[in-house]
Specification:
The structure is a single chain. The chain is mainly alpha-helical. It is 42% helix and 6% strand. The chain contains eleven helices and five strands; from the N terminus they run E-H-H-E-H-H-H-E-H-E-H-H-H-E-H-H. A three-stranded mixed β-sheet has the order 1-4-5. The longest helix has 15 residues, at 226-240. The radius of gyration is 20 Å and the shape is globular. It starts with a strand and ends with a helix.
C-alpha cells in the first residue's frame, strides 16, 4: 500500500508491478528528503519479517543463512531514517491502521488490510489518496513474493445449531459469499472472472495494480516447523533491535536449529 499524496509531493512515480526489495529501498531513499520530519518513507510492523522473508524464511529448507540480507536490509532502512526504529515500533505497539495517519509513504501488508482502508475511507477517517501493488521480492527468488496467510472458518463443537452453521459455511465459501466478500475488498478463496471484476469495481483507492489479484498458485510448500519459525523470528528481533550483530544471530540460529 502507498500514500499517493506523499508520492505526488515528492514528484515520484507510483510503484507498479512487482519490484525488488532493492528497488523498494531506492524508492524510499528518493521519498524521504521530500517528507516532513515526522514522516517516513516506510511504516514497519513488528511482524513485517513475514513479508520481507517472503518464501525464504517459511520454506522447507529452514535456512537461517537466508535471513542475512533481510536483517541487513532492515538495519539499513533504520540507519538511513527511512523507517522508524524497530524498537520504537514494538514499544508503541504500532498497528497496520497507523498507515491511515498519513505519515508513511509505503506499507507492506496483507490484502485483508484493503478492507480496513476502504471501510475507514468511507467513514472519512482519513483523506489521502492511496494505491496498492504487489509486494516486493528478492531478485534471486525470481519474482516470487506472495506469502499466503489464509484465514480459515469452521464450526465449533459448542455451536448451538451446527446445521445452520454449516449452511453459512456452504454459503460463504461459495460463489454468492465470494461476491459479497469481493465487494468488501476481501479476497475470497473461491474466485472466477465475475468475482475478480466485482473486486476491481469495488476498489475505493486511486490505483489498483493487476498484480495484486492473482489466482495462480506458486506451488511453494511451507511446512516449516513452528519451533523453527520461532527461532528465526526471535533471531530477527535480536538483529534488528541491535541486541546482537547479524553474523552472531545467524550462527546462533543455525546451531539452535541443528540441535533440534
Amino acid at each position: 500500500m502507498y500514500n499517493c499524496d506523499l508520492f505526488d509531493q515528492a514528484g515520484i512515480e507510483y510503484p507498479n508491478g512487482q519490484i525488488t526489495w532493492d528497488d523498494f529501498f531506492s524508492i524510499a531513499e528518493q521519498l524521504q528528503p521530500a517528507l516532513e520530519d515526522d514522516q517516513y518513507a516506510c511504516m514497519t510492523l513488528p511482524m513485517d519479517v513475514q513479508w520481507m522473508a517472503s518464501g525464504r524464511m517459511l520454506s522447507q529448507e529452514n535456512d537461517a543463512e537466508s535471513m542475512h540480507p533481510i536483517m541487513n536490509w532492515m538495519l539499513n532502512m533504520q540507519d538511513k531514517g527511512l523507517t522508524p526504529s524497530y524498537s520504537d515500533c514494538i514499544a508503541q505497539d504500532i498497528q497496520q491502521q497507523c498507515f491511515e495517519l498519513g505519515d508513511y509513504a509505503m506499507y507492506i501488508g496483507g490484502s485483508w488490510y484493503l478492507n480496513y482502508l476502504a471501510s475507514d475511507q468511507k467513514k472519512e477517517l482519513f483523506s489521502f489518496s492511496w494505491g496498492v501493488t504487489a509486494a516486493p521480492y528478492w531478485e534471486e527468488d525470481e519474482g516470487y513474493a506472495a506469502t499466503s496467510i489464509l484465514t480459515g472458518i469452521g464450526i465449533t463443537k459448542q455451536s448451538d445449531n451446527k446445521e445452520l452453521a454449516y449452511s453459512f459455511l456452504d454459503f460463504i465459501t461459495g460463489e454468492q459469499g465470494a461476491v459479497i466478500m469481493a465487494g468488501e475488498q476481501m479476497i475470497p478463496a473461491y474466485t472466477n472472472d465475475i468475482i475478480q471484476e466485482v473486486y476491481r469495481e469495488s476498489f475505493s483507492g486511486k490505483v489498483l495494480d493487476d498484480s495484486v489479484y492473482k489466482t495462480e498458485s506458486s506451488g511453494l510448500k511451507r511446512d516449516t516447523e513452528s519451533r523453527v519459525q520461532e527461532v528465526l523470528c526471535d533471531g530477527w528481533r535480536k538483529a534488528v533491535t541491535r541486541q546482537e550483530k547479524v553474523d552472531q544471530v545467524i550462527e546462533d540460529m543455525k546451531r539452535e536449529i541443528e540441535n533440534m
